[in-house]
From TrEMBL:
Protein name: Cytochrome C
Cross-referenced InterPro entries: FAD-bd_8 (IPR013112), FAD-bd_FR_type (IPR017927), Fe3_Rdtase_TM_dom (IPR013130), FNR_nucleotide-bd (IPR039261), MRET (IPR050415), OxRdtase_FAD/NAD-bd (IPR001433), Riboflavin_synthase-like_b-brl (IPR017938)
Pfam family, one: FAD_binding_8
FAD-binding FR-type domain boundaries: 226-325
PROSITE patterns referenced in this protein's UniProt entry, alphabetically: FAD_FR (PS51384)
Source organism, top-level taxon: Bacteria
Length: 451
């Protein structure tokens, strides 16, 4: 254990709650409602497509069913990409909403491939729109183009190579999808179809088609102007390969809760595309906020060198539902590398009155990579129920479940585990804890990357 650690303290907090509160249970159920609703809409579209065209044969019905489900899935990817705050509670946070967004896109691609392979052959009279041939060609073009763009979005790293797809190209693939979806909507609206069928499917597809196009227009042209706040870079400091930025509001400051994140742009420095960062500070009276940026990719490696004090940055947010106040009386906060940022904001917000027993473990490669030690030390001095330890794996060895159990001043199985960091660290610790019969009461984590 590195000597940068704050020793763990044994604190008597009384009996541990053996059950989860009803508000927490309701919240857990609510977090599943979003993914279930999304899946239900796709299934409903498929069922409507099949039953509406079943009389034309199973091949035609299946072709329409998978095509209808593809349109609804693609529409919902665009709706979720607009970052609707109203839907965040239904998914458990924007990071999880983006996970659903990703798999919806993949599902849409698979469904489009199936639809393209199954050519519905309608032998009865069809409704000729006059644009049927154009709609057919437009659908073929959009299908091929969407396959390319979805593949770019899916494979951030080229398969079987160490090469990464440039972030700008990845972003472009997302921005252009709305245009191609509008072409898909044109295709499904004007393609020649049989007459005299139940209009329910058409109503559903037109509704989702319009909703998807509106969501894309809102994301690209409306939201950036409505949601963004203007900030100024007031301080830049470096700690090893991590850069701390302090941003001060030019006008009305953004209001956030510790643990939330926001999207940041720096057009003055040549970074006009938004990038998510967790806010590494608690709310302050002057509205200033702190970001801790580690060079993990092209964007984050170039940004610190391009910024200068006095430059403007645009902030959109806040987002996220990572909140330790929703946890129990005993908590373990486990951070891997730059995943410490939400915990720094939490620690800074801790008061003397906080009654939870909290132990934080920060896992880094080398002692000099540990950031925010002064914040953690101040929190430990302010509240005796908070303690922390830093594990430098290059010197102390790999963090294991056994070591985590030994560090905690209470039984891990009696605590809630909050995690932010690389997935491999989380999976390894949880697997080890399960093998030792020390599975935490609840595990809460943020996805380290959206893509």
């Amino acid at each position: 254990m590195t000597d940068l650690a704050q020793p763990a303290k044994s604190v008597n907090v009384g009996p541990v709650r053996s059950s989860i509160s009803w508000t927490t249970a309701v919240g857990d159920v609510l977090n599943l409602s979003g993914p279930l609703l999304v899946a239900l809409m796709c299934v409903l579209a498929g069922l409507l497509g099949f039953t509406t065209y079943a009389s034309y044969g199973s091949e035609a019905a299946i072709g329409i069913a998978v095509g209808a489900a593809a349109v609804v899935a693609m529409s919902q990817t665009l709706i979720l990409a607009s970052r609707p705050r109203l839907l965040e509670p239904m998914f458990g946070g924007l990071d999880r909403m983006y996970r659903v967004h990703k798999w919806l896109g993949i599902s849409a691609m698979v469904l489009m491939i199936l639809h393209q392979q199954i050519e519905p052959d309608f032998e009865r009279a069809v409704r000729e729109t006059g644009l049927g041939e154009l709609a057919e060609e437009a659908g073929e073009f959009a299908f091929n183009a969407l396959l390319v763009l979805i593949a770019i979005s899916w494979f951030r790293r080229l398969p079987f190579t160490p090469l990464e797809i440039p972030y700008q190209l990845w972003r472009f693939s997302h921005r252009f999808m709305g245009v191609l979806f509008a072409v898909i909507v044109f295709h499904q609206f004007f393609v020649d179809m049989p007459t005299g069928v139940d209009p329910s499917l058409s109503v559903m597809l037109n509704t989702f088609g319009l909703g998807g196009v509106i969501a894309w227009v809102h994301t690209e042209f409306v939201a950036p102007r409505l949601r963004r706040r203007e900030y100024t870079v007031s301080d830049i400091s470096r700690h090893g390969d991590t850069t701390a930025l302090t941003l001060s509001p030019k006008g009305r400051a953004m209001r956030w809760r510790p643990g939330q994140f926001a999207f940041f742009r720096a057009p003055e420095a040549g970074f006009s595309e938004p990038h998510p960062f967790t806010i590494a500070s608690a709310p302050r009276s002057d509205g200033a906020l702190t970001l801790s940026i580690k060079g993990l990719g092209g964007w984050t490696r170039r940004l610190p060198d391009a910024l200068r004090t006095g430059m403007s940055m645009q902030v959109e947010g806040p987002y996220g539902r990572f909140d330790f106040h929703k946890g129990g009386a005993r908590q373990i906060w486990l951070a891997g590398g730059i995943g410490i940022t939400p915990f720094l904001a939490w620690a800074e917000s801790l008061t003397e009155a906080e009654r939870r027993d909290i132990h934080l473990v920060h896992c880094v490669r080398a002692p000099e990579e540990a950031i925010g030690l002064e914040i953690l030390q101040a929190a430990a001095a302010r509240n005796p129920r908070f303690s922390f330890q830093v594990v430098a794996t290059a010197r102390d060895g790999r963090l294991t479940a056994e070591r985590l159990i030994g560090m905690a001043p209470f039984a891990v199985r009696d605590a809630d585990l909050w995690f932010c960091g690389p997935t491999g660290l989380k999976d390894g610790i949880l697997k080890g804890l399960k093998a030792l019969d020390q599975t935490p009461r609840r595990v809460r984590f943020e996805h380290f990357e959206f893509a």
